[in-house]
Amino acid sequence: MERTTETEITFARPFALSSLMVPLEAGTYRLIVEEEEIEGLSFSAFRRTNTQLEIPAITTGVGTRQRLRVSMQEIEAALAKDAEL
Predict the structure, then answer these.
(1) In this predicted model, what pLDDT tens digit does every residue of 17-65 receive, in sequence order?
(2) d(Cα 69, Cα 4) in Å, to the nearest integer?
């Protein structure tokens, strides 16, 4: 069994990701996490298989969007850095 979770994350300031040459603008972004169930356990558990960030920000109002594969660790680090400032 697979599941997909979509959440919205907000950056108050522009932020950088290693896979992009230019920083992304501040705003609210859609984060898509795909997971698969780990079979054979006596309880339900899932393993993350893919994490994507939808760009540009939802708040820009641009109709054309694309999904960028990202690491959850990099997103968490960018959010933590944004919260510090």
Answers:
(1) 998 999 999 999 999 999 999 999 999 999 999 999 999 998 787 778 8
(2) 14
Contact (CB, 8 A) for 48 and 19 = no
Q: Going edge to edge, which strands form the sheet with 27-37?
A: 2-11, 27-37, 46-55, 66-69
Report which secondary-structure segment, H or E, holds 41: none
By residue count, the chain amounts to 85
User: pTM value?
Assistant: 0.87
Triad 64, 33, 29: Cα angle to 5°: 40
Q: What are the boundaries of each domain within the chain?
A: 2-84
Read out DSSP for 18-35?
A: TT-SSPBPSEEEEEEEEE
